[in-house]
Write a structure and sequence with these properties.
2 copies of one chain form a homodimer. The first copy, chain A, is built from 9 helices and 13 strands. In chain A, strands 1-2-9-4-7 form a 5-stranded antiparallel sheet. A 4-stranded antiparallel sheet of chain A has the order 3-8-5-6. Chain A has a 4-stranded antiparallel sheet with strand order 10-11-13-12. The termini of chain A are far apart. With 237 residues, chain A is of the alpha+beta class. The radius of gyration of chain A is 19 Å and the shape is globular. Chain A binds a DNA duplex (30 and 30 nucleotides) through helix 8.
DNA sequence: GGAGCAGTTTGCTCCAGCGCAAACTCGCGG
DNA sequence: CCGCGAGTTTGCGCTGGAGCAAACTGCTCC
């Protein structure tokens, strides 16, 4: 399943994380020593909605899918977490229960801190506290934008937006275009765009036929970002 | 328009705010002195999306509507702010621009702090920083729930949820039932539920006819919360 | 190598609710 | 008292996309 042991964590790895922006290298060295690092296999559940033993997590390599389900069975993807990003942190400060499920999308290297450790770190380095506010604040703005999209835009535009967001967040350039790091099923794209598997499949397939993107081995590569962008900005009429 | 002068701010007023939970009375007295308080008339724009002179705000009495508009004209209500709640705070920590518009729903008493003041307060009273994280975190969870609703539930359930949320947030008991403090037009209800004026009007009218709620002078009173609750929890099929 | 399974594609039907249009209510100012 | 404007109600037609069903693809594990 996973291995904790002997994974050396370089300070510059921490420096690349949103959580530790603006910290001195000396501080990072101390933090590295207090970090639990694990290598996780694909499709592993890191935590479940409602779990009470909360930790703050961050992805170093790979990716994690965060999903939330309601009292009815309905489920949506809250977001995908790529390298350098944190997850599961809000629960430390609110009710001490994870508000969602976290599952690895691929083999993933994950760092995490217990509540006590994180609070201690914030105490020693107030900048970390400000970073937490910044991260959560930015995420709040993103989710609010998603609310606006869901309420006012149609499925094709939402899928286009979702892809661009993913590319910005976890895309890396290849010979063919911008590839999204982690594997995505059609269902994932549907859940993050607020539509159904069927509609998402239709839309993505049509874009593949038009040459805007390609899927290989569950991984999406955007070949013509300009076209996706155009769709994401199309007039409502 | 508004008057700033000579509004005495009692420490216990501050103590009732989410931002100052857990602070000593002595601290609150100092804070009161550093707070700008204004009485604002109805329908006054407190700030606009994109404004760069950001402050942190809180409502003491009355209410504020927070709306966001996209590059296309589409607009949604992000949330309504009732007594004791903060607004416009996230922008202090992200990009220094308000991400939305804020307009008073009624005559409103508002407190606010400049960026420098708030940062100084957080520095003196770290608990305030933790409170900010808690507030933003809770709001993030709420918005994520709204995303789930928008993606998976139909209009009637969403309107029901929205009303219950508003009642919890800004409701007070009257002889007829739970009344929502501030005036709401049909359009407001539509925008917060992610539907259209027409659909919202139809739904609310049908509930009025069924006796579940009443509107008087733009103010909604929920007479049979159990019925609204039932609708909000109805099975999808 | 074939049975089984997870994920995808595609055709078809149906309806919630959007969009448009028109009538109606009510408070306000002249 | 009347006209006006803002907000609301209601009727009606149209359609995006949800929902269902079925075929297809390409794995993984016996």
């Amino acid at each position: 399943m996973y291995s904790t042991m002997d994974i050396a964590l370089a300070p510059q790895t921490l420096a690349a994380m949103e959580l530790f922006q603006g910290l001195a290298v000396s501080a990072l060295e101390t933090i590295a020593a207090r970090t639990r690092v694990r290598r996780l296999s694909k499709d592993l559940r890191i935590f479940s909605q409602g779990d009470e033993e909360v930790r703050a997590h961050a992805v170093i390599e790979g990716g994690v899918r965060i999903t939330q389900s309601g009292s009815d069975g309905a489920q949506v993807v809250i977001r995908f977490i790529g390298p350098g990003e944190m997850f599961g942190t809000v629960s430390l400060f609110t009710d001490g229960r994870y508000p969602a499920d976290a599952i690895t999308l691929a083999e993933t290297l994950e760092a995490s801190w217990s509540e006590a450790e994180l609070l201690d770190l914030i105490h020693r380095h107030p900048q970390i506290g400000v970073n937490v506010i910044r991260i959560i604040g930015r995420r709040l703005q993103e989710v609010q934008e998603r609310v606006r999209e869901l309420a006012t835009q149609r499925a094709e535009r939402r899928v286009a937006h979702a892809l661009l967001r993913l590319a910005r967040q976890a895309g890396h350039s290849t010979i063919d275009g911008t590839a999204i790091e982690f594997p995505l099923r059609r269902k994932d794209v549907a859940d993050i765009s607020g539509t159904t598997l069927h509609t998402a499949s239709r839309i993505l397939t049509s874009w593949e036929k038009a040459g805007f993107l390609m899927t290989r081995d569950r991984r999406l590569t955007i070949r013509q970002p300009s076209e996706i962008l155009r769709i994401s900005e199309e007039a409502p009429d």
